[in-house]
Amino acid sequence: MIKYINKERGSALLLALVIMVMLTFIFIAALTTSVTDMDISKNMKERTSAFYLAEAGLEIGMGVLKNNPNMLNNDSLEMLVNANPNLGNGNFSMDVTGTAPYKTLTSSGNSKEGISQVQVMVKRKKNPYNIWNNIVFAGVGQSGRTIAGNISFHGPVHILGEGEPFTDSNGNGNWDPADTYTDLNGNGVWNPGEPLLTDSDGDGVWDTTEPYTDSNGNGAYDAALSAVDLAYEAVGTARIYNNYSGITSDLSTRIPPLDTTTFNGEVVNTLDAELRVKHGQVSVSGSATVGQPNASGNSVKETMDGCYVNDGYTGNKGASQVYSDNGTNQGYDLEGNFSFPNLSNSYTDPNTGYTYSSYLNYLNSNALVISGDLNLQPGVPYPAQSNANGSIYLDNNGNLQISGMVYVTGNINMNAGSGGLKSTPILFDGRGTLVSANDINISTHVLSQGMFPANDVIGFIAAKDLNIGTGSGDSQLKIMGAFYAQGKITNAKQNQIAGAMVSNYFSATNVPDVFHVPTLVDNLPPGMPGSGTAYVYTYQIVPNSWREL
């Protein structure tokens, strides 16, 4: 009996030992698995960190290439990209290989215990720039600003704000008005010894007013916008859009559809909108924005393709409501390529070689000339007039036939019809330009009969000001064309306008919508100022070329 009990106790002890050994193995296996999982997790974390470092390196590399489009040497580009490789929790290094126009960027991200590489191919592209490639191109500005008001621009905006040219008689780099003095002897002229009240250049001698070109026609000298002047003041619900959001069917059915591009994995419609400001600040206040936050699923591009502003942003929102693919720190990038086309400058006709005293004189000499004012209104026919340079005719129903250039020595007024014709548009057919030696006033719908601008296109050139919707009851107008004013373009009502606008400065109220038509630059009406093109190089990512190595 005793032997049996001892055998049972021995078996129990052996079983307990076996179980303890098994539990030990299980514990060791679990511990090993846990340590392995922790190592994997740590490695994944470090690799993810390295991946983001590599991606940041690519972004820096693209920024360097875009800011140095004329630098072709790979080693020089690498030196610029790798100048500041540290990014907080690690660093990156960039290799640049290939021959223009194609280059390959390989970025290596290095964290504490991980490394990751990403690669992309880029293409150096020659881009044409023309003042008519913008929804608005603004020249010298006026009284410390260039564009003011509550307006929605759909497309690129280009502002110079560079001031009016002047003869610098004393070489001090500034325009000097006439010095004032006390006329002691009352002879109406300054005589040596008479006290100067102002002495612009401090030479102790009375100086006459330095001659200048009054580009905007306001009767005063306008200097270049300073770093605290406002080049563009966006208030209320003013916007710059990169799409045709809100366009009416009266316009959209008459113009070509927008180009598409791939952005953030989506195929979207785009106006290739960029903001360029050479002098002056961009003021953004209230709910106004430059671009819009990116939103997926709506088939349009919201963000600006780029912003290039020398003097920065101000207003109670400033850069916080600027949404641009290149951020808000890039300066103006087209230095020396553009100037405002002044009608008073001399002009040499490239076809004949003849030089005219002014561009306005060139237009007058190569157009059908109409003396006095020209009034166009549905319900009031305008009889046909023509010569070898241009022709014009308006029937009772508002159908306008136009070709070539028509030069008017007075004002041009496009008025709404009366009674039942009040909403009847002026429908233009042909390819022609209306030129006024004074002002142009548009107070009615002006639309193309066919597709704009490939089939039918109209241009407006005002030697002074161009006023759109400034009369009583002029709101909700639909207007198309290429618009130029030597002075100011005013948009006063909630109208929609398709085409492009060029002026020294702009004024807008009541949120008009202005839509750029990109194909206009290749289909300009005859005689439009500033039709020359400058070419600038930039780098763009080759689609589907990104990969992780």
Write up what this structure looks like.
This protein is an alpha/beta fold and 549 residues long. Among the domains are: 2-127; 347-523, no CATH class. It is 15% helix and 33% strand. The protein contains four helices and 34 strands. The strands form four sheets. The protein has a 25-stranded mixed beta sheet that branches. Strands 1, 2, 3, 33 and 34 form a five-stranded antiparallel beta sheet that branches. A two-stranded antiparallel sheet has the order 10-11. β17 (347-348) and β18 form a beta hairpin. α1 packs across α2. It is globular.
Low-confidence stretches: 37-42
Rg result: 34 Å
Total number of helical segments?
A: 4
> Sheet with the most strands?
25 strands, mixed
Which percent bin holds the helix content?
Answer: 10-25%
What distance separates the N and C termini? 76 Å
Overall form: globular
Question: What is the quaternary state of this protein?
Answer: single chain
- Work out the number of β strands: 34
Arithmetic mean of pLDDT: 86
Q: In percent, how much strand structure appears in the residues?
A: 25-35%
Helix vs. strand class: alpha/beta
Short description:
The chain is α/β, with parallel strands linked by helices.
What's the arrangement of secondary structure elements?
Elements (H helix, E strand, L loop, with lengths): L1 H66 L6 H8 L9 E7 L4 E9 L4 E15 L6 E3 L6 E5 L2 E3 L2 E3 L70 E5 L4 E3 L7 H4 L6 E5 L2 E5 L3 E4 L3 E4 L4 E2 L15 E4 L3 E2 L32 E2 L6 E2 L2 H7 L2 E3 L3 E3 L5 E5 L3 E5 L4 E10 L3 E3 L11 E11 L3 E3 L3 E3 L8 E6 L3 E3 L9 E14 L4 E13 L4 E4 L17 E8 L5 E2 L1
Parallel strand pairs: 4-7, 4-31, 5-8, 5-31, 6-9, 6-32, 7-12, 8-13, 9-14, 12-15, 13-16, 19-23, 20-24, 23-25, 24-26, 25-27, 25-28, 26-29, 28-30, 29-30, 30-31, 31-32
Antiparallel strand pairs: 1-2, 2-3, 3-33, 3-34, 10-11, 17-18, 21-22, 22-23
Helix pairs in contact: 1-2
